[in-house]
Amino acid sequence: MDNNFSQRIRDIMAYSREEAGRLQNNYIGPEHLMLGILRDGEGLAIQVLQDFDIDLHILKDYIDSHVRSIQEPYDGTSELVINKNTEKALKMSILEARLT
Prior knowledge:
mainly alpha
């Protein structure tokens, strides 16, 4: 699926994978994609959040806290999997990109 994305999006996906590992999750969920977008710090999503006066640091802290509160223990030995919600979001982004 990575071949369908620009280098910047592949970077964000890599950041998302790193964020899932940092939070000791065994999956990559939409919350990890958002953390990847926040870590990248550029693009339309960041601009929209800033236009709505959302403090990006507070948002990151909130996501971190929420993920930590619901996570299941992860030993770090198995491969991270993309969950169905993330897969759906990625597929929708491919379709959206084709329409523009």
